[in-house]
Amino acid sequence: MVLSDKDIQKELKNGNITIKPFKKEMLQPASVDLHLDKEFLIFNTIDNFVIDVKENIRNLMTEKTISKTQPFILQPKQFALGLILEETGVSDKLVGRLEGKSSLGRLGLIIHTTAGYLDPGNSLKMTLELFNAGPLPIKLYYGMKIGQMAFEYLSSPCEIPYGSKSLGSKYFGDQKPQASKMYQNFK
User: Fold this and answer.
1) Tens of pLDDT along 24-37?
2) Does the active-site annotation cover 129?
3) Choosing from 86, 87, 129, 152, which is the catalytic residue?
């Protein structure tokens, strides 16, 4: 069941949802608006010609940082990793689902290709998997509304939350965009 604004506020107060920083105007009827941070990773296509999912390719991606006055320009058909400004977390009894903003989707911006899921027990700055599906470049600005997080209750609190040693959680507590760690699944 998706939480309403009333239940989101209740769980924020109880500490089962954390959003830092949080402002009341971010609250929507059944979600919380989230904003774009300034750090990105883009593919280094000069030094790489193929991705081997079994290998840790150290120079696969290049860091890019923007400012309030310098936007990130996402070219048509370009993919980049970005970051949510707010650190968002859920307890062992909730999950979060990151969704795009309709107004940006209408411009061709996809904010996550597959991984918009906030696991129970994790608190992090969510990574954005940005893709420009449109025919024109899109300027993305530091601090702009980029997505919205909806929250759902689990049927019962999970026994082993994300980040537990036994899970080998790869992205627990991330504060910067991280390139894929898929290669760790082959060890």
Assistant:
1) 999 999 999 999 99
2) yes
3) 129
